[in-house]
C-alpha cells in the first residue's frame, strides 16, 4: 500500500463525525475501524466498489477504471441512479490492462486512455479509479493524473481506493476524500442566493431526488449541488458556497460534511426523505438552518404552509391502504439512514416493524430507532441467512423488506418480499414516494401467488398431502407395461405408434369435431 493511501486511510479513520472514533484512543484510531480485506474476501463490496458507487452518479464526467476489465464490468451501473441530462456516466471506460502491463507497468496505457476519452467525449473532467492489480504493481495514478491535467487542460481526478484497502464503506469515504481534495472549491458559482443548499449522500436512485426537489423549488430553496446523485462537475466544484449541507446517508459521506464545515463553516444536519413526518421535519430543518445563515425569516412560515398542504394530501391518499395494512408485521433488513427512516414510514402506514437491521447504522441512527420503536426495539446487528429465516418464522412477520441479496431467504420462507435497497425500481422519497411505498407493500402482500405456494406439495408421501389416499392404505403396484410390437426396418412400412390414434380420438372428442372437420 502506498504511503499516500495509508495517510488518507488514517485521515478517514480519524473522522470526528464517527461515534466509534470518538470512543477510541490515538493507538486504536490508527488501526482503523475494520480489518483490511484479503484477496477473494470482498463479499459485500471492496473499497474500489464503494468509491465507484459513491462517485459514478456524477453524470457528466468520464469514469475510467485503471485495471482489468472485470473490475469495470462488476461495478458498472450497479445502482439505478437516474440523470436529468448527460448519460456519459453510464458509459464504461477501462484501461483493460494485460499481462505485459503487469510486467512493464500500466502508466503509459492510462495516459493514452485519458487522452482518448478527452478527444472523443470532451467531458468536463475524468475520474480515474485505482484497482488492486495496478496498485500492487506500483502505478502512480496521482502523478499520471497531474501530468494529464497539465497536458490536456482538463481536471483528471485520481480516486486512490484499491479493493484490498478495505470494505465498501471505506471506499465511499475515500471517494469523498478525492472530491474534497481535487473538486470542491476549485470553481466559483455564477451567482449565489441565501437559499443555497447541498445534499450529500443522496444518489437519486430511480429518481428519488426529483420527488423532493419540487418541494424545495416551491420554497425557493436552490440545490446548489447534489453529491452525487444527478450531480454535475461544475456544480460540485462550486458547492463550497452553499449556506447549508443536508446529510442523507452519514455512513457513506460524513467526511465531506464535516470537512466542509471545518473549511468553509457550512453547518450540516442529517435528514430523511422517507415517510410523511420525516419529510416534513427535513423541510423544517432546512428552513431553520437557512434562516440562521441569513435567509429571510418568512421562509419558516412558508415551509409550515407547504407541509400542512402536502401532509393532508399524502394522508388522504394512503387512507385506503392503511385500512388493509393495519396489524401487518414487517421485518426490515437494510442499514444506514433507512434503518430508522423506513421504520417511521411503515408505522405511518399502520404496519408493525418486528425488527430492523443496524449493520451500517451510526450511533445517531440507533438512537433514532429507539426513539421511534421504543427501548425494547429489536435491532439486528448482523445475522446469517439461517438466523434470518428463523426470525421470519418466530416473529410471524407478514412481509420482509431488504436488498436483493436477502430476497431468497424470504422466498424460501414463502414470504412476500419488497426491495428497499439500491436495486429497486420504484422511488420512495418524499410525500409521493411514501404513497408509492405503501402501494408496493400492499401489492406484495395481496399477490395471490403466496396462497398458491403455501399449499402443501402434491408429491407428499403416499399422496397424503393432497388427501388422495388415507394414511396407511397400501398403494397398489403399477400395472405392467405391455410389450411393444417390433418396429419395421423400412421407413415406408412404418405403422402409427401405439396410443397415437387413441390420443387423436380424445382430442377430436374434446373439441366436438369429426375427422373431416379437424384443422390442418
Give an overview in words.
The chain has 520 residues and is an alpha/beta fold. Helices cover 46% and strands 11% of the residues. It contains 22 helices and 13 strands. It has a five-stranded parallel sheet with strand order 11-10-9-12-13. Strands 2-1-3-4 form a four-stranded parallel sheet, sandwiched between helices. β5, α11 and β6 form a beta-alpha-beta unit. It is globular. The termini are far apart. About 4% of the residues have low confidence.
Topology (SSEs and partners):
Elements: H1 3-13, H2 19-22, H3 26-31, H4 47-55, E1 62-66, H5 69-75, E2 93-94, H6 99-104, H7 107-121, E3 126-130, H8 132-136, H9 141-152, E4 156-159, H10 168-182, E5 196-202, H11 209-219, E6 222-228, H12 233-237, E7 244-247, H13 250-264, E8 268-270, H14 276-292, H15 298-325, E9 329-333, H16 338-348, E10 352-357, H17 363-373, E11 379-380, H18 385-394, E12 399-402, H19 407-412, E13 417-419, H20 430-446, H21 449-453, H22 500-511
Parallel strand pairs: 1-2, 1-3, 3-4, 5-6, 5-7, 7-8, 9-10, 9-12, 10-11, 12-13
Helix pairs in contact: 4-10, 7-9, 10-13, 14-15, 15-20, 16-17
Please supply descriptive tags for the structure shown above.
520 residues, four-stranded parallel β-sheet, alpha/beta, 11% strand, single chain, 22 helices
What's this entry about, in short?
The chain has 520 residues and is of the alpha/beta class. The protein has helices at 3-13, 19-22, 26-31, 47-55, 69-75, 99-104, 107-121, 132-136, 141-152, 168-182, 209-219, 233-237, 250-264, 276-292, 298-325, 338-348, 363-373, 385-394, 407-412, 430-446, 449-453, 500-511; strands at residues 62-66, 93-94, 126-130, 156-159, 196-202, 222-228, 244-247, 268-270, 329-333, 352-357, 379-380, 399-402, 417-419.
Amino acid at each position: 500500500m502506498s504511503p499516500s493511501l495509508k495517510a488518507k486511510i488514517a485521515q478517514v479513520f480519524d473522522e470526528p463525525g464517527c461515534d466509534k472514533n470518538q470512543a477510541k484512543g490515538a493507538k486504536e484510531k490508527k488501526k482503523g475501524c475494520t480489518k483490511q480485506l484479503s484477496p477473494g474476501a470482498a463479499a459485500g463490496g471492496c473499497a474500489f466498489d464503494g468509491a465507484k458507487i459513491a462517485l459514478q452518479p456524477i453524470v457528466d464526467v468520464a469514469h475510467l477504471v485503471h485495471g482489468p476489465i472485470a473490475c469495470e464490468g462488476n461495478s458498472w451501473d450497479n445502482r439505478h441512479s437516474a440523470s436529468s441530462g448527460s448519460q456519459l456516466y453510464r458509459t464504461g471506460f477501462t484501461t483493460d490492462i494485460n499481462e505485459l502491463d503487469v510486467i512493464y507497468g500500466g502508466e503509459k496505457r492510462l495516459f493514452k486512455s485519458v487522452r482518448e476519452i478527452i478527444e472523443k467525449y470532451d467531458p468536463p473532467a475524468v475520474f480515474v479509479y485505482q484497482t488492486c492489480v495496478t496498485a500492487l504493481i506500483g502505478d502512480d495514478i496521482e502523478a499520471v493524473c497531474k501530468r494529464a491535467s497539465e497536458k490536456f487542460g482538463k481536471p483528471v481526478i485520481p480516486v486512490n481506493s484499491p479493493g484490498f484497502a478495505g470494505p465498501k464503506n471505506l471506499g465511499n469515504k475515500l471517494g469523498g476524500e478525492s472530491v474534497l481534495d481535487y473538486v470542491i472549491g476549485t470553481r466559483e458559482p455564477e451567482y449565489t442566493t441565501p437559499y443555497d443548499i447541498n445534499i450529500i449522500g443522496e444518489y437519486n436512485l430511480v429518481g428519488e431526488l426529483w420527488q423532493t426537489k419540487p418541494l424545495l423549488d416551491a420554497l425557493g430553496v436552490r440545490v446548489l449541488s447534489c453529491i452525487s446523485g444527478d450531480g454535475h462537475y461544475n456544480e460540485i466544484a462550486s458547492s463550497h458556497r452553499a449556506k447549508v449541507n443536508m446529510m442523507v446517508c452519514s455512513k457513506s459521506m460524513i467526511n465531506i460534511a464535516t470537512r466542509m464545515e471545518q473549511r468553509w463553516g457550512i453547518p450540516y444536519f442529517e435528514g430523511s426523505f422517507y415517510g410523511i413526518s420525516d419529510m416534513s421535519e427535513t423541510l423544517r430543518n432546512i428552513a431553520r438552518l437557512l434562516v440562521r445563515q441569513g435567509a429571510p425569516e418568512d421562509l419558516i412560515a412558508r415551509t409550515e404552509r407547504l407541509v400542512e398542504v402536502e401532509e393532508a394530501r399524502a394522508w388522504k391518499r394512503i387512507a385506503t391502504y392503511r385500512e388493509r395494512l393495519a396489524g401487518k408485521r414487517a421485518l426490515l433488513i437494510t442499514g444506514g439512514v433507512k434503518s430508522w427512516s423506513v421504520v417511521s414510514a411503515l408505522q405511518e402506514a399502520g404496519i408493525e416493524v418486528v425488527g430492523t437491521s443496524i449493520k451500517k447504522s451510526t450511533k445517531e441512527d440507533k438512537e433514532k430507532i429507539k426513539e421511534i420503536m421504543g427501548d425494547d426495539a429489536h435491532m439486528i446487528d448482523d445475522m446469517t441467512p439461517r438466523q434470518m429465516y428463523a426470525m421470519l418464522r418466530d416473529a410471524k412477520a407478514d412481509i420482509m423488506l431488504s436488498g436483493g441479496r436477502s430476497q431468497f431467504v424470504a422466498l424460501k420462507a414463502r414470504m412476500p418480499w419488497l426491495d428497499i435497497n439500491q436495486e429497486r425500481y420504484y422511488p420512495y422519497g418524499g410525500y409521493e414516494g411514501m404513497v408509492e411505498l405503501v402501494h408496493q407493500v400492499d401489492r406484495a402482500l395481496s399477490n395471490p401467488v403466496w396462497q398458491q405456494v403455501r399449499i402443501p406439495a402434491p408429491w407428499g408421501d403416499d399422496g397424503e398431502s393432497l388427501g388422495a389416499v388415507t394414511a396407511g392404505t397400501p398403494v397398489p403396484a403399477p400395472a405392467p407395461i405391455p410389450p411393444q410390437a417390433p418396429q419395421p426396418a423400412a421407413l415406408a412400412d412404418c405403422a402409427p405408434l401405439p396410443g397415437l390414434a387413441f390420443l387423436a380420438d380424445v382430442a377430436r372428442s374434446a373439441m366436438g369435431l369429426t375427422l373431416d372437420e379437424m384443422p390442418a
